[in-house]
Every structure is written in C-alpha cells, then in structure tokens.
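Hi all, posting the design record for the shared folder.

TITLE: backbone redesign
STEP: 1 of 1
STRUCTURE INPUT:
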C-alpha cells in the first residue's frame, strides 16, 4: 500500500509522521507476546509458501513457484492464514499455540485492508466459545488502554456485548428471521424490507444486509461479539450441538472495526472434506483460483486433532486501535 501524498515512504518526513503509530505498534507486539507467555502458550512459526493457501471462496492468493534441487517446479501460494498449519501442530500434540504471521490476500487495499499484513492467531485445546471470548477480552484489556478511540469512535473496554447473528438480523433488519429463510433469498429480502437485486443469491443478500445494516451498529459503545453464524457460513467451525442450524463462530468488532474471526474448531475429517468440496465448487463457478486440496491437513484431522477453539485477529487493525491511527498504512513500516 502506498502512502497518501507525494512523499515516498522512505522519506524522513514520511517516517516521522508514522513514528508515533509505529512505536505503539512495537510496544503492542511486546505486550501481546508477554500475554500469551504468561498463559502457557508456545509461539510457533509455520511456512508462508504452501501448496494450499486456504479454501475461502472469495479470497485471492499470491502465486509463486518453488524450484527444487532436482529441477522440479512446484506451484505454491503465499498463505492467506496459518490456520491449516497450526491445526496440524495441534494434532501433533503442540498444546496451546500462537503465531504472529505475515499473510497475503491479493486484490485487497483500503484504509482497513492491505494485501500483506500481520495476523495474530491462537488456538487452545479444550476451550469453548465462552472461554475464547473471555480470553480475547483479557487480551484487549492487557494490551490496550481502558478506553480506545479510532476512526472517530470511542469504545470503553470495561464491558462487552454478545449478539447472535439471528438476533442482529431481527434487531437491525426489520425483524427478519435469517435462520428460517436460509437459502431463500426472496424470503429474506421480503422480511428485511430489501429489494432483491438481479442475480442476487441468499449468501449475497446475507452479506449485503450484514455490511449495510448490521455492522455499522457493532463495536461502538462496547466490544461486540457477533456469534452463532448460520451453518452455511460455518467455514471451519463446528455446528452448535444445541442448534445445528448455526455454527460456533464469532466475529469481534471494536471501535466499529471488524477485528477478529473465531471458531470452535471442526474436527470431523469427513465433514471438513465435504465442506471443502462445496467451497471449491463455488470458487470454480465464480472463476476463482484452483489448487490441490491440503490432504496433510485432512490427514491430521483423521489422526485426531483435539477439540479446540481458535481465533484470527488482525494485528495491524489492533495497532490502529491502540495508537488511534485512521489508516492501516500509518501502522506499517514500509
């Protein structure tokens, strides 16, 4: 991402303008590592160039080539998340682990997005959604000021809000029942009082309503944990045993910014393989990239990954909140 204005990022005045934000970022990095050390987590480092960068339908990966010593050329990608690799370590018996990983997502760029950024991910065997919410709040309170301000929004951290996706749609989308209308775009549009666009499917409408009507209300007066996502949006989260219509997933919003995405992890290899097949088919239908399935990851699940909860938190966005930066490029060294 380039700096706004005419000065190159290597110009002394450019660095001086970013220096207060960067100093706060450096302190934040130290305090995050101290937080996990005191809780018995091990810090890990996993490969960035991989044969399968992830299976998210809409993410685009940077592609490269690994040249082997025997002359073979292996197609690889810069990972969009260290999730698969870290779960392999869980299956190997690593115990609780965290990583400050560089990740890449092609085609992204805005005040809150960079194509290369830092992801803080951590996984704790045996943890529930409640455990992970509590630990996430403990991290925020240990590393940030009691009241934080970013992009014109001030949020105290002394409390937090839990709101299910179904509750959020009912509250902000005209009382719409997002679970009862799952898969039926016309029904969801009718209940939400929205005009269905040409060619718009249920998932498209779900995310449009989420972006336009729900997210502007989240994480303002206090941090908001948006929980229990519809099963179609489960990703790598397990379904809730008490209600299989939803998955044990949450997103966290602070200062109105989406900060983290978390799962109680799916450990069933057959269900995970089936979900991957669906995601890959959808990505192909949209003309997206293709790569080999990560059979090592599925093999780790078959071997037996412990029940666990994990979270991916955008560290650069956390640095923005910590420092009061208004743009992500202000907390990036170059």
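Okay, here is what came back for every position:
SEQUENCE:
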């Amino acid at each position: 991402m380039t700096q706004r204005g005419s000065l190159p990022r290597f110009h002394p005045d450019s660095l001086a303008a970013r220096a207060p934000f960067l100093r706060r970022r450096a302190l934040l990095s130290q305090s995050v590592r101290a937080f996990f050390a005191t809780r018995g987590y091990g810090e890990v480092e996993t490969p960035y160039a991989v044969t399968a960068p992830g299976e998210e339908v809409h993410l685009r990966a940077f592609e490269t080539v690994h040249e082997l010593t025997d002359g073979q050329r292996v197609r690889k990608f810069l990972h969009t998340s260290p999730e698969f690799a870290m779960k392999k370590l869980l299956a190997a018996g690593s115990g609780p682990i965290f990583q400050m990983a560089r990740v890449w997502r092609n085609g992204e760029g805005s005040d809150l997005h960079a194509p290369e950024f830092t992801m803080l991910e951590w996984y704790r065997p045996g943890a529930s959604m409640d455990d992970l919410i509590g630990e996430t709040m403990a991290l925020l309170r240990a590393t940030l000021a009691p009241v934080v301000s970013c992009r014109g929004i001030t949020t105290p951290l002394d409390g937090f809000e839990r709101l299910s996706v179904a509750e959020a749609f009912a509250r902000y989308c005209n009382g719409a029942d997002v679970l009862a209308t799952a898969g039926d775009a016309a029904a969801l549009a009718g209940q939400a009082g929205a005009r269905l666009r040409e060619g718009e499917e249920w998932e498209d409408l779900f995310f449009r309503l989420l972006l336009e009507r729900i997210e502007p209300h989240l994480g303002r007066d206090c941090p908001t944990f948006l929980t229990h996502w519809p099963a179609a949006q489960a990703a790598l989260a397990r379904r809730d045993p008490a209600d299989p219509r939803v998955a044990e997933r949450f997103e966290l919003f602070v200062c109105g910014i989406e900060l983290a995405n978390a799962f109680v992890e799916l450990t069933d290899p057959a269900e995970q393989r089936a979900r991957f097949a669906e995601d890959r088919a959808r990505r192909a239908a949209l003309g997206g990239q293709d790569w080999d399935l990560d059979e090592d990851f599925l093999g780790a699940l078959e071997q037996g990954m412990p029940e666990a909860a994990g979270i991916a938190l955008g560290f650069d966005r956390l640095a923005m909140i910590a420092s009061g930066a208004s743009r992500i490029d202000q907390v990036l060294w170059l």
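COMMENT: The first strand starts at residue 42 and ends at 43.
Let me know if anyone wants the other runs.
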